[in-house]
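In response to reviewer comment 3 from the previous cycle, which asked for concrete evidence that the modeling workflow produces usable outputs, we include below a single protein chain processed end to end. The sequence was submitted unchanged, and the resulting structure tokens are shown without manual editing.
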Amino acid sequence: MKALFLDRDGTLIVDKVYLADPAGVELIPGTAAGLARARELGYRLFLFTNQSGIGRGYHTIEDTHRVNARLEEVLGLPRPVFEDICIAPEAPDQPAVYRKPSPRFILESIARHGLDPARCWMVGDSAADIGAGLKAGIRAAAVRTGKVDPAGVPEVKSGRVPVFANFAAFAETLT
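The workflow returned the following structure tokens.
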């Protein structure tokens, strides 16, 4: 069993910073086609999103559920799109349980769903995304569609983690 663990903001949708309104969901071009391709190739999809706005009191977990539901709606793919969704509500100054770069969600999902770590990827736009994947013992890929320039991430600089223009470009490399 193979899987993709996917960051949300800056990877699949435009990062609007503390997005709480489903009307603000804006797909990054090619996202739906890339996810469709991954599914056709047998990848199971998992959404893994840090939402510190919850821990900071800017919005609620219910707001985040509505944004995620809107994401699935605008993708236009058979639902549910994601096998599981992990929302890490911790603010940076709070004890981290699931907040990336914690690999906990990935490790739990691998065990629960019988996934082969050698056939799994974490895809995201930040050092925290990449760190979560690498700490879980899976491959990681960076995309240039977020707020952070992945060229500054040590694992990217060293060539350990490939960088793609966007998720669609990454999905084209899947086999």
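The chain has seven helices and six strands. We consider this sufficient to address the reviewer's concern, and the full set will be provided in the supplementary archive.
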